[in-house]
Amino acid sequence: xxxxxxxxxxxxxxxxxxxxxxxxxxxxxxxxxxxxxxxxxxxxxxxxxxxxxxxxxxxxxxxxxxxxxxxxxxxxxxxxxxxxxxxxxxxxxxxxxxxxxxxxxxxxxxxxxxxxxxxxxxxxxxxxxxxxxxxxxxxxxxxxxxxxxxxxxxxxxxxxxxxxxxxxxxxxxxxxxxxxxxxxxxxxxxxxxxxxxxxxxxxxxxxxxxxxxxxxxxxxxxxxxxxxxxxxxxxxxxxxxxxxxxxxxxxxxxxxxxxxxxxxxxxxxxxxxxxxxxxxxxxxxxxxxxxxxxxxxxxxxxxxxxxxxxxxxxxxxxxxxxxxxxxxxxxxxxxxxxxxxxxxxxxxxxxxxxxxxxxxxxxxxxxxxxxxxxxxxxxxxxxxxxxxxxxxxxxxxxxxxxxxxxxxxxxxxxxxxxxxxxxxxxxxxxxxxxxxxxxxxxxxxxxxxxxxxxxxxxxxxxxxxxxxxxxxxxxxxxxxxxxxxxxxxxxxxxxxxxxxxxxxxxxxxxxxxxxx
Length: 516
Description:
CATH class of the largest domain: Alpha Beta
Radius of gyration: 24 Å
CATH superfamily of the largest domain: FAD/NAD(P)-binding domain
Number of strands: 39
Number of domains: 4
Strand content: 25-35%
Helix content: 10-25%
Low-confidence stretches: none
Strand order of the largest sheet: 1-11-10-4-3-2
Largest sheet: 6 strands, antiparallel
Shape: globular
Number of helices: 10
CATH topology of the largest domain: FAD/NAD(P)-binding domain
CATH architecture of the largest domain: 3-Layer(bba) Sandwich
Mean pLDDT: 96
């Protein structure tokens, strides 16, 4: 078979800043026009396959409509997570007023980013503790940025890096699929030494070494600590019984999924995002689920009462029961959990229990460093702790460039972005500063809700649309400016993300006008 060349549009079909999706043979391509020039790249996001034609194009940067990965449509390069691969770039030509796109034989919509191989002349050793979102992103970014020294990526988890948000969404509900981000061969091909199932116990600043639980040590020239979080444990009688699960790792998800195959009733402790997503997944698998929480509404502090009621009603409509404003007294059972006794005397029978009452930063190995009260570590805007030590992801308390407030965020996309910035900072790149707008999403039953920005405290919530009707955007205001927005209108939230990336603290009227 030869290359496929087809006319997919007339020259006049697109104005500047417009896009369309078309097929060239069996390959879907995205055609865009920028400053009179046409460009063609793969049509679907490298993250979960979203149709990029439904995204937001600003200049040459395209924001994915689903989870806000960002690409450059002129060359297909991946600029912002999630998703790590690039879009394939295809040749475009103009003939007789028609736009032709050529797709090489066997071409795919996606391509791997270019990676620098290790050089014998570069004796530097960069060590990354934590093989989650931030750590694995940093390792890939170092190679993409041309680092030719040795990279050692060490993870306490026995599995190679995987897509953690998928665990309580598609993986647990469908009991199928592989959430692994990269196969082991990827790291071998790019000279990244991946060591799994190995826990750091101490970082010795003076000696520039890391000690591990197996007695080994690693010296470093520069170190990134991206060890993430671990679940908070319930300290009540019976907490050690079999059948009580904590959802954090791929191993946790596998074990819970196997247990769910034989269970009929489940109790979820906690109305956090992990707890509520788990409740959704187990309900979809046919279990009778009850959520127990000390909070009177899900997500009350971060999203407010109206959105909290929305999620409560959504779950109740799907058969989930709730015991709110109440804690757990103890777990009952002989070796295996059989019931949950609530404070005040209530009792819930359970074939299995899932505890999701928050997480804490994994920073036990940083005994020689000053830690914050929540266990996090302070960093500057380059994610630097000191001259040769950096921190990223869940553990990093970084300055919010919009307000100067020091914040710590436990979001997948933020951790991936931190990894990119930290890698560039380790290479002393002058542009290595974290100045991004946080974003996360949750999917429960068939509803996806996005959250853009960050608002630790807000003075007012203003709604477009109706929460009860399920079509809404909520704006969280402080000092007259929009600090964050959330809602079910995915197209609007994608546009808001794009606007906030250029004007981080707009007034509500300005934001509404600019998104149209």
